[in-house]
Amino acid sequence: MSQGKKTLRFIISIFIITIGAIIAAATLELVLIPNKMIDGGINGISIILDTIFGGALGLYVILINLPFVLFGAKKLGGKFLFKTAYGMILFSILLELFGHFDPLIDDTLLATVYGGIALGIGVGLIIKEGGCLDGTETVAIIMSRKNNMSVGQIVFVMNIFIYGAAIFVFGADRALYSLLTYFVTYKVIDMVSEGMNSVKAALIITDDADEIATNIMGKLGRTVTTIEGMGFVSKNNMTILYTVITKYELSMLKDILNEVEASSFVTISDVSEVIGKHIKKIPNKVIEK
After folding, report:
1. H-type alpha helices, 99-107
2. How many domains does the chain have?
3. What is the number of other CB atoms lying within 10 angstroms of the CB of residue 281?
4. CA 62 → CA 37, 88, 107, 250, 285, distances in Å?
5. Which of 65, 143, 172, 190 measures 20 to 30 Å from 74, CA to CA?
6. Is there a contact between 197 and 150 (Cβ–Cβ < 8 Å)?
């Protein structure tokens, strides 16, 4: 991919992240928060703290997310850091902006359903472009590479404690409505971003298998299998790479392929189930070899 096309694709990605941040911030301030409902993760913690102590919700979001973003920066790369930082900062500013507008919905059930849908669309757009709005997801992505739990499972465990705390602040009924919103939101996120926790298989036919395989192992922490093949028409020998990744990591895989100046043909397919242990982290000494 030429430098011009890379720049254009990056600009489009930032634009989509901007739209996602606008939708997510508007949904929280105009639909969920007025109905005393919270989002999960760091945003949920920020809403609880803002309710108890007052102040600026956007500031809480930035301050609490900052350590998680810095923690994930070394593990997930510069592009992820930039897109995540941009999305979070814009999201925080928009929270303060939309906080001055009147609520759009004052019916709890409607807020639960349509708030969850809108929030899922906003967050899903950001995840689809390789960014993130919540620090807990950053930690979950890294943790999922070192154990057999998916990103969604780890985030869900974290959110159990957050929604449990919401019971004491907003009451049991609002905490349960918030939990229902959470399920709606993440179902929509799966639809928009193609499901960050589902598994994908990538089959890569390339002229530079070593560099691509090394980057996949080093940046994604995924094992790669090499298969020797031959073109039916050209009769040329070629190397085929096979790897299994999460859908969330699909955008990162595309970045790796775009950065390598080699001809590649890639097919991505759904994997219904993975049986057996899938190595999540490759020792550096193996990568160096």
Report:
1. none
2. 2
3. 14
4. 20, 7, 29, 27, 37
5. 190
6. yes
DSSP 3-state of 88: helix
pLDDT digits (tens, 9 = 90+) for 93-126: 998 899 888 888 888 889 899 999 999 899 888 8
Q: How far apart are CA 32 and CA 267, in angstroms?
A: 40
CA-CA-CA-CA torsion sign (174, 179, 182, 184): negative
Domain assignment of residue 11, given as a range: 3-193
Q: Which H helix or E strand runs over 139?
A: helix 135-144
Q: Is 234 exposed, middle or buried (0-12, 13-18, 19+ CB in 10 A)?
A: exposed
Q: Could you give the CA distance from residue 171 to residue 35 in angstroms, rounded to a whole number?
A: 12
Query: Are both 271 and 185 inside the same structural domain?
Result: no
Q: How far apart are CA 141 and CA 127, in angstroms?
A: 12
**Are residues 252 and 116 part of one domain?**
no
Is the domain of 159 the same as that of 104? yes
